[in-house]
Design goal:
Blueprint: H1 3-17, E1 21-28, E2 33-37, H2 76-97, E3 105-110, E4 113-120, E5 124-130, H3 136-155
Antiparallel strand pairs: 1-2, 1-5, 3-4, 4-5
């Protein structure tokens, strides 16, 4: 079985253990997708954004940008992977600058659910999309296990943190 097939098998197992997952992506630190499973749910229509929400009509998000109101659908696996790489670069710098050590995980809670990214070895990241009803403790437990397994598949190690060139 190829590494990609084994990664997809691990993503399937993860989705069985955490049924509130709506998508999963494994990408390199450079933002290139290695594997994805239902990676990006379609964006709700602009009318579904309640007034005053961070992504409501008139908010300072560029029209047509991935995930913005008025965009033509979801950013897709490639777009989510690229956004994850950018977010992880900032998160890695933040943890190092504040003396918290190497990056391990990043969780963002939005009005419609969670986006969580976990180190997967030394050169990959596991990004998960989950509904707002997910048990976040269970998500962390299962995602950390899957991140370790995926890290072993990607680079043969279980490195404690994701390496980013912040120089």
């Amino acid at each position: 079985m190829t590494a990609e097939a084994e990664i997809l098998t691990e993503l399937t197992r993860l989705r069985l253990r955490v049924p509130q997952l709506t998508g999963a992506i494994v990408a390199g630190a450079d933002g290139l997708v290695l594997a994805s499973d239902g990676a990006a749910a379609p964006e709700p229509p602009e009318a579904a954004c309640p007034p005053g929400s961070p992504v409501s009509p008139g908010s300072p998000v560029s029209p047509g940008s991935p995930g913005s109101p008025g965009s033509s659908g979801s950013p897709g696996a490639d777009g989510v992977a690229a956004l994850t790489a950018a977010a992880l670069s900032v998160a890695s710098r933040l943890t190092e600058a504040t003396g918290q050590g190497a990056f391990h995980e990043l969780v963002v809670r939005g009005g419609r659910g969670y986006v969580a990214s976990y180190a997967a070895g030394s050169s990959a990241v596991l990004t998960l999309l989950a509904s707002p009803r997910v048990n976040i403790g269970r998500l962390h437990l299962e995602a950390r296990r899957s991140g370790t397994r995926i890290g072993e598949l990607v680079d043969g190690t279980t490195a404690p943190g994701l390496s980013f060139d912040t120089g």
